[in-house]
Design goal:
SH3 type barrels, four-stranded antiparallel beta sheet, 3 domains, alpha+beta, 285 residues, rod-shaped, Pdz3 Domain
Length: 285
């Protein structure tokens, strides 16, 4: 009976030792896993760099021509691709401005290298240069980092344009009336005026006519004699609603529609004059 008890005690002791050994191994494994991961990560991040450096180690083989003169050469590193070049301020041309409330103030700017014309409101990023921070009739300012870039409106007509021959009405209105509401415009004179769109944008001041929070045409003021607006009979106080049935309900449409007049053979203007809707049609000859 005593032998059985001794044997049972030995077996229980062995089982206890096995359990303790398993517990100890788990504790040691847990501590090791918390000690070495950072080292393993550092080694894994260094491996790509080591592999890149290995390429330069083969340069001597390439230069000496291990397999003959035909295989001689130099190891040329792969050049990293560069992103698109940033827009230079000298690449921008201010075509026109409109000054009103915050939402009614904008600038029409041309990027000459790509011939891209866009309308920017206050606060908009001008291409990749910076935000538009100031708009005046004579120019705009763009914030570029710690400095401000100024773009001036093209108010001077080039000598070539000024000397170019136009119709006999060049000194005055270039639209001759044929009947009430109908006019004829000399095509060469109209195209000459639109060739310098920057100058044309300074021939009058256009302010959005806001109604119920929406733009319904543009109020015209400061019309210059001999300019494109005076040419087609637009006077101070008119509200221009549409051109060729395209409603002028945004600065973008107003700018784009004015630019598209070149090459047209007929123009239709819908406007409000003295509080009454009025339509003018023009034949371009």
């Amino acid at each position: 009976m005593d032998k059985k008890i001794v044997t049972l005690n030995i077996i229980v002791s062995i089982l206890i030792l096995v359990v303790l050994a398993m517990i100890a191994s788990d504790v040691i494994a847990y501590k090791l896993s918390r000690t070495f991961p950072s080292t393993l990560k550092k080694q894994s991040t260094l491996e790509p760099a080591a592999r890149r450096n290995d390429l330069s180690a083969y340069s001597a083989i390439l230069e000496k021509g291990l397999f003959g003169k035909a295989t001689q050469g130099r190891l040329i590193p792969i050049a990293q691709s560069e992103g698109p070049a940033a827009t230079s301020p000298s690449d921008l041309l201010l075509l026109g401005t409109a000054v009103g409330s915050f939402r009614e103030t904008f600038a029409f700017i041309l990027r000459q290298s790509t011939h891209e014309e866009r309308v920017f409101r206050l606060g908009d990023d001008v291409f990749d240069i910076g935000p538009l921070v100031s708009v005046r009739k004579e120019g705009v300012e763009i914030q570029s980092g710690d400095s401000r870039i100024k773009l001036l409106a093209p108010t001077v007509v080039p000598a070539e344009t000024a000397a170019a021959p136009v119709s006999s009405a060049a000194a005055g209105a270039l639209a001759s009336r044929t009947s009430p509401g109908s006019y004829v415009i000399d095509q060469r004179a109209l195209n000459a005026a639109l060739d310098n769109i920057g100058q044309a944008m300074t021939d009058a001041r256009l302010l959005p006519n806001a109604k119920d929070g929406k733009v319904e045409g543009f109020r015209v003021s400061e019309v210059k004699p001999g300019g494109i607006f005076a040419m087609v009979g637009i006077t101070n106080g008119d509200t221009l609603l549409s051109i060729n049935d395209f409603a002028l309900d945004s600065p973008e449409k107003a700018m784009q529609t004015l630019v598209s007049l070149k090459g047209q053979n007929r123009i239709k203007l819908d406007l409000i004059r003295d509080g009454r809707p009025t339509t003018f049609t023009y034949d371009i000859r």
